[in-house]
Design goal:
Layout (H helix, E strand, L loop, with lengths): L2 H15 L2 H22 L8 H24 L3 H15 L8 H15 L7 H12 L5 H12 L1
């Protein structure tokens, strides 16, 4: 089932279950997707498919993780709990996250595929990883691992 269909189905189920927190999060995801689609309408050749939706969901998770961290530091646990609950709902629509070993294997495969030998080739390797593993790994952490491997 396509991601958009899964989101719509989950939205209907949340409405039927009268789950306001889940419903709010699902509506927020839908609104973010619509905003991105509208934003890209004016860009020639731009598409908003499954990969772009996964990137958007990953970005939403990172934003909420940062907000939760700030709320915890500020002693606002109730707000942090709300952010963490939203993260759990968003994560339902992302593919399974790769383990550290799987990430290392994916990096090795991408390096071999791109024929990377130095830091100059880092962009090629990251592009290959993003094409194959969008939503499955934290590319910020992968960038640091890749830099260490290519140095």
């Amino acid at each position: 089932m396509e991601l958009r269909d899964r989101l719509n189905q989950a939205l209907k189920e949340a409405m039927k279950a009268r789950d306001p927190a889940r419903l709010s999060t699902l509506r927020m995801i839908g609104a973010a997707i619509k905003d991105k689609e509208i934003e890209q309408r004016g860009t020639p050749g731009a598409t908003f498919g499954e990969a772009e939706m996964l990137q958007l969901l990953s970005k939403m998770i990172k934003q909420r993780q940062e907000s939760a961290r700030v709320y915890i530091e500020g002693g606002r646990q109730e707000l942090a709990d709300k952010e963490l609950a939203e993260i759990r709902v968003i994560e339902e629509f992302l593919p399974r996250q790769l383990t550290a070993d799987e990430v290392a294997l994916a990096i090795d495969a991408a390096i071999a595929e791109a024929g990377a030998t130095s830091l100059r080739d880092m962009g090629k390797v990251m592009a290959a990883l993003k094409a194959r593993h969008t939503g499955q790994m934290d590319f910020g952490a992968v960038g640091a691992l890749l830099k260490a491997r290519l140095a």
